[in-house]
Amino acid sequence: MTDRMPRLLFVALAFGYAFLYVPILTLIVYSFNESRLVTVWSGFSLKWWGELLRNETMLDAALLSFQIALVNACVATVLGTMAGFALARYPRFAGRTAFAGLIAAPLVMPEVIMGIATLLLFVALDQLLGWPERGFTTIAIAHITFSLAFVAVVVQSRLADFDRSVEEAAMDLGARPFTVFRTITLPLIAPALVSGWLLAFTLSMDDLILTQFVAGPQSQTLPMLIYSSVRLGVSPQVNVLATIIVTVVAIAVVIAGWLMNRTRQRQMRDVQAAARAA
Amino acid sequence: MSTIGVSRADWGRRIVIALPYLWLLLFFAAPFIIVAAISFADNTPDTVPPVTLSGSGRSYTQLAADALYPAAYLNSLRIAAIATLITLLIGYPMAYGIARAPAGWRGPLLMAVILPFWTSFLIRIYAWKGILSENGLLNQVLRGSGLVEDPGTLLGTEWAIYLGIAYAYLPFMVLPLYAVLEKLDRSLLEAAADLGARPERAFLTVTLPLSLPGIMGGCLLVFIPAVGEFVIPDLLGGTETLMIGKVLWDEFFSNSDWPAASAVAMVMLVVLVAPIVLFQRARAREMAR
């Protein structure tokens, strides 16, 4: 390789990361702006922070989104893990191809299509059974449906990656399938479950389109509120919200990275100790 | 193992498959049958819900007769295709650079690509609204550099939509490309170099063809949702920019015409079936390897 290629790659990487992060930085900077305009810097101020924290509607919407995201993440992780497990470990069952299709389609399906489809189902069910009332329940069900597909993909690829011989050994020694799953498989796929749960949580916190279709008139989630205020023009309170979200995500990522690093180091120490003992 | 144990394992297996399967059949597959039925119904604004089942298919005739709809479909496909190409041009060098970086750097670099995806999609698009506006950061930089005296406004043009899509979907392009490029056998490149191939030629004849599955996967992950995109054309595009996701949204929310919105969704689904099947096949192949 010549020296020129890596330098070119370095420029490409620098450009790419600037493209990703400059917009986010502008959001953060202008959350401390004095002026209402998010394009003109007129001095440092915390007034938009104060306004956001006194904004009851915003806080209510954030709470609703948080509750839905929590329910969604837990249910989607359970169902998604089952689906990922079925796809990775059961190579043959009736309707497997259709099942794989049902997992793949929500990953790419435009949300407007899913939105109208899910809403029409809820309206039809409501006419037939008088259930569900539009609001928390319908939003949670709609979110679970597409989140579980994402969890399934994460779990499936983790299961496809690791060695099955330990599971098979336990089976040979007479362990029941559920015991094998609980004591061997589950600890091995735990990182995938954690990232699947977090992914489902984020997808739900962030969803606008599907939610707008199925929410009904009473409930307003955080993205719905952000959308209505952003449509009217720019609003410094949204910048403050962005700064809070970016900070929370960054802290979570640093903690997760530190935890993973520590686990890896401990595993390495165990392996070394085992090697010395042998 | 006792027969009871076997049948219990069998039950466990059945539940593991059946629960997510039934959930997806009820809440993902069944709704499409209802959309199909409603798309053939009549719009009756005075009833709740504003639909009368009739099987008339009036919405489809309307879709074919009004030039706005075919234009919106074609426009969406064109915009999604151009935006996908731009995303590929930004994403490929990034994925390649990360795959070639020192081993210890790859994890953090990849994480840095995914990180923005964890923050709000809506807010990230809103950031571009500020940057691309008349007095936004981009124009300030352009004016300040003295290169352009009167840069027009990008906000409200199709370019703003391309940028928005490339920005929002970049992680979906980089991840599959990285997965392929990282596994690439470096000895093939060395063999090409030993045989006298210049780096450019080695790239074009070895790396690029071998990374085609990643290109395919990444492009489909960007293209399919981009066709039906609503938020990006709504916030960054102009009033005259016609995209089908926005048309569906307006039919439903502004006109309350459920049959028309359903017909728009059905036709979009038909248009997207081929790429979705292609995506599913590519994924199945990937998993089988």
Question: What this model shows, in words?
Answer:
The complex is a heterodimer of chains A (278) and B (289). Chain A has 278 residues and is mostly helical. Chain A has a domain of 176 residues: MetI-like fold, CATH 1.10.3720.10. Helix content of chain A is 80%, strand content 0%. Chain A is built from eleven helices and no strands. In chain A, helix 3 runs antiparallel to helix 8. The longest helix of chain A has 42 residues. The two termini of chain A are 44 Å apart. In chain B, helix 3 runs parallel beside helix 7, helix 3 runs antiparallel to helix 10 and helix 8 runs antiparallel to helix 9. Chain B has 289 residues and is mainly α. Helix content of chain B is 78%, strand content 1%. Chain B is built from 13 helices and two strands, in the order αββαααααααααααα. The mean pLDDT of chain B is 89. In chain B, a hairpin with a 7-residue loop joins strand 1 and strand 2. Chain B has one domain: MetI-like (MetI-like fold, Orthogonal Bundle), CATH 1.10.3720. Chain B starts with a helix and ends with a helix. Classes of the chains: A mainly alpha (278), B mainly alpha (289). At the A-B interface, helix 1, helix 3, helix 4, helix 5 and helix 6 of A face helix 1, helix 3, helix 4, helix 5 and helix 10 of B.
Summarize the structure.
Chain A is an all-alpha fold and about 280 residues long. Chain A has eleven helices and no strands.
Question: Which keywords apply here?
Answer:
heterodimer; A: 278 residues; mainly alpha; MetI-like fold; 80% helix; B: mainly alpha; two-stranded antiparallel ribbon; 2 strands; 78% helix
